[in-house]
Design goal:
This protein is of the alpha+beta class and 300 residues long. It has one domain: (Glycosyl)asparaginase (Glutamine Phosphoribosylpyrophosphate, subunit 1, domain 1, 4-Layer Sandwich). An eight-stranded mixed β-sheet has the order 5-4-3-7-6-2-12-13. The chain is globular. The two termini are 17 Å apart.
Length: 300
């Protein structure tokens, strides 16, 4: 297993990913461009004095709207041919989080997760309970069919036929950010695994697994959700950093643990309190982009 990684430093900015897996050559450009679009959308919030929490929400929302990713519009379909979204957002400065799982019929699940955080009574809501909460919060339902793309239908048919390539990129999206005050935040959104059983919940909405932010680090993960859940992926990273580990090295080390203990592959992005950021993947691709006031960078 080869682990590929990179790192940098910023005063304030947003780092996003577009999912770990295997992106076909002809789709790599659109994945990288989409990530850059999402990161810039988040950075535009910071440029006008916005918070890291607002920035990662806007970045995630932009990525949810892009059909090349597995989140929002174009999300992976369940075995029944339906869309069930998972999403989470976390404010590191005040240690608050909001998440939804198995949510159907909403264009931007990250907005529902933010409403859960804002409400403050709970961290995670699921299924129809989450949907009713969203409506009470003023977020309207959409026709579920409007979220389904031809590509998502084709991916499900390949799974049903047993012809889906191993490691097909799920395209989970995520964002981490640091604002001018040094506050950190993280957001992750996904449609999950193509052909998943209805009701399956992955790592993305689970604090400490697919998403985490506190006053030390913000993390968003992507990859084989069951393995990420089993090893407590994001919390394991935070613990290693608290023990004095260097950010990029820790991401690589925990991806190795994911392989050894969870028999899984994945990717991750993170920013720490000092403005150091890093990304790493154990898959063949993971689109990513970073946007700051000093400039942008991206890759896959």
């Amino acid at each position: 297993m080869e682990i590929v990684s990179g790192s940098g430093r910023l005063e304030a900015g947003v780092l996003v990913h577009g999912g770990a897996g295997t992106v076909e050559e002809e789709r790599k450009a659109s994945h990288e461009a989409g990530c850059l679009d999402g990161a810039r959308a988040g950075q535009s919030v910071l440029a006008t004095g916005g918070s890291a929490l607002d920035a990662v929400q806007i970045a995630a929302r932009r990525l949810e709207d892009l059909p090349q990713f597995n989140a929002g519009t174009g999300a992976a379909l369940t075995a029944d041919g339906t869309v069930e979204h998972d999403a989470a957002i976390m404010d590191g400065a005040r240690l608050r989080a909001g998440a939804v799982a198995g949510l159907a019929g909403f264009k931007n699940p990250i907005d529902v997760a933010r409403a859960v955080l804002r409400d403050g009574r709970h961290v995670l809501l699921c299924a129809e309970g989450a949907a009713r909460f969203a409506e009470r919060a003023g977020i309207g339902r959409v026709d579920p069919a409007s979220l389904i793309t031809d590509r998502a239908r084709a991916a499900l048919e390949r799974v049903r036929a047993g012809t889906a390539p191993r490691g097909w990129a799920g395209g989970t999206i995520g964002a981490v950010g640091r604002d001018a005050a040094g506050n950190l935040a993280a957001a992750t959104s996904t449609g999950g695994v193509v052909g998943k059983l209805p009701g399956r919940i992955g790592d993305s909405p689970i604090v400490g697994a697919g998403t985490l932010a506190d006053d030390a680090v913000a993390i968003s993960a992507t990859g084989d959700g069951e393995g990420i859940l089993l090893v407590g992926f994001a919390q394991r990273i935070a613990g290693a950093l608290a023990g004095g580990g260097e950010l990029e090295a820790v991401l690589r080390e925990v991806l190795a643990v994911l392989s050894a203990k969870g028999a899984a592959t994945g990717g991750v992005i993170a920013i720490d309190r000092a403005g150091r950021y890093a990304w790493a993947r154990s898959t063949s691709t993971m689109s990513w982009a970073v946007a700051t006031s000093e400039g942008d960078a991206s890759g896959i």
